[in-house]
Amino acid sequence: MAKYFTLSSILFVAALVVAGCSDQEKQQAAGGAGAARPPSPVSVVIMKKSVQPLTTILSGRAEAVQSADIRPQIGGVIKEVSFREGGFVKAGDLLYKIDDATYVASVEEAKAALEKAEASVPSAAANVQRYERLANTGATQKDYETAQATLLEAQASVAQARATLQTAKINLAFTEIRAPFDGVTSATNYSIGNLVTAGQADALMTLRKINPIYIKLNESSVNLLRLRAAIAAGNLKNNAGDVDKADIRLTMEDGTEYPSVGKIDMSEMAVSTTTGTVSIRTLFDNPQNLILPGMYVRATITVGEENGFAIPQRAGSRNAEGFLTAKFVNADNKVETRTFASSKLSGNNWLVTDNVKDGDKLIVDGFQWIGDGATVKPIPSEVDAKGLVIQQAPATEAPKS
Question: What would the DSSP string read from start to end of 109-120?
Answer without folding.
Answer: HHHHHHHHHHHH
